Backbone:
């Protein structure tokens, strides 16, 4: 027995999403058809709309529907002199949730990966270079991921900062707060040792 | 920081789906925006279309885009004289995947639940009664779930069958093939004992 074509198509389209397996796709499709057609239509419209109207901030490259995102539009943020470089808009969300950071961001939308044809231009480093050249930035905080590509990208941008005489710092990697030392991977443990700080000195 | 309104709306709409949590909803929305806008639009269209065109088979109540589903449209199936009653279209899929059943179905789209206002009419038993009255059915196989509601519903339909002099049978419940006896719940184990079959008799 074959399902109706529209239903098959819907299940297939759901199945392609990260974290949704075949069983889950089927469950969602049947749930919507059986109990929430209005919700299904709204989700359909929300998808179509978001894919169409959400673009990138011309200043920091994060997702926004306007020319500039709310953070870049804030003069208080701009005046901080702090610019934090991250790989993805989700990193911006995570940092904003701490409520501690008061500067602006620059979102690479990826990291350097020459093997995949992703060079400096593909992650917007020409735009970042313009920013560094224009001045007004006291410190660039490199918050790319602690992966090989993230480290390479951070290193590359650090050299760019050096070229324009702007301070650059790398966020600390180590044991997560509340984490257990023996459950942490070797790379993190190594970072934790390298990044150790003096707490008492004779 | 707030996300752009369309993005927030999309994440909210995704989060309402079964099996999708807040993190997962965010991951899907950002994945589509970053890497697969075309796929996002297609999913949006597939949703809108399915919610609009998928209706119920006038004969068995399962999902279909036509007046009658493929199974009900098959004369070979209709001529089998077998009608299997299930709670949901996913049950039809599961049984069809075994490739063993050659009859037609009747999909209740739920089960009797007086407390929720779901009586015989809400699960289409008036339509089923018409079928029983019209004749041509040799056996009704009751394949509702082995839950309290499923058993109650099966019992109710069995009495309907009795009224119209149609044979009714209940599918067997027991230890799943490959399952381990000591891992099975008590209710299933009880069913397995009640439904035991003689394999050797002196
Ligand atoms: Zn921005
Ligand atoms: Zn049908």
Residues:
């Amino acid at each position: 027995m074959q399902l109706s074509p529209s239903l098959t198509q819907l299940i297939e389209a759901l199945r392609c999403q990260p974290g949704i397996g075949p069983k889950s796709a089927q469950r969602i499709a049947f749930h919507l058809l059986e109990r929430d057609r209005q919700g299904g239509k709204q989700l359909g419209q929300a998808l179509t709309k978001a894919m169409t109207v959400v673009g990138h901030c011309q200043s920091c490259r994060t997702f926004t529907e306007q020319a500039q995102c709310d953070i870049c539009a804030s003069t208080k943020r701009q005046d901080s002199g702090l610019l934090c470089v991250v790989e993805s808009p989700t990193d911006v969300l995570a940092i904003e949730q701490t409520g501690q950071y008061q500067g602006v961001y620059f979102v690479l939308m990826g990291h350097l990966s020459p093997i995949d044809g992703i060079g400096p231009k593909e992650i917007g480093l020409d735009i970042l270079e313009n920013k560094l050249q224009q001045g007004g930035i006291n410190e660039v905080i490199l918050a790319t991921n602690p992966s090989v590509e993230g480290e390479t990208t951070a290193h590359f941008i650090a050299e760019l900062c050096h070229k324009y005489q702007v301070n650059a710092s790398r966020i600390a990697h180590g044991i997560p707060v509340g984490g257990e030392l023996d459950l942490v991977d070797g790379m993190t443990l190594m970072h934790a040792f390298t990044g150790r700080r003096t707490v008492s000195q004779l």
User: Anything to note?
Assistant: Chain B touches chain A through 59 residues (CB under 8 Å).
